[in-house]
Amino acid sequence: MLNDFFGTDRIYIACGYTDLRCGIDGLAGIVQQKFRLDPFSNTLFLFCGRRCDRIKALYWEGNGFVLLYKRLENGRFQWPRSAAEAQALTPQQYRWLMEGLSVEQPKAHRPEAGLCMV
Questions:
Q1: pLDDT single digits (tens) 51-64
Q2: What is the three-state SS of the chain?
Q3: pTM score
């Protein structure tokens, strides 16, 4: 289900470690207080614990929260651990993460900005 989760305006991951014992209220509190983001927006928020084989996803459906939990049987998620911040993901980075790849692919083509015709 998480692999095919599209239709959101934005996707954020909580870099670093999150205590996955938190439920909906705890994760929504982290989004609102720690990251200063709106948990009631059309945004998917992803959290990962220390073991990197489990993630929780929080999504507001308009009339209530959806809490999804995924545990990998083999392998680990390539989760950014550098800082305790929320990082926005592109749809491509989200697909990479769900496929077990790092969200920062060094050989991927980067989008170009500020181009003009001469």
A1: 888 999 999 998 99
A2: CHHHCCCCCEEEEECCCCCCCCCHHHHHHHHHHHCCCCCCCCEEEEEECCCCCEEEEEEECCCCEEEEEEECCCCCCCCCCCCCCEEEECHHHHHHHHCCCCCCCCCCCCCCCCCCCC
A3: 0.82
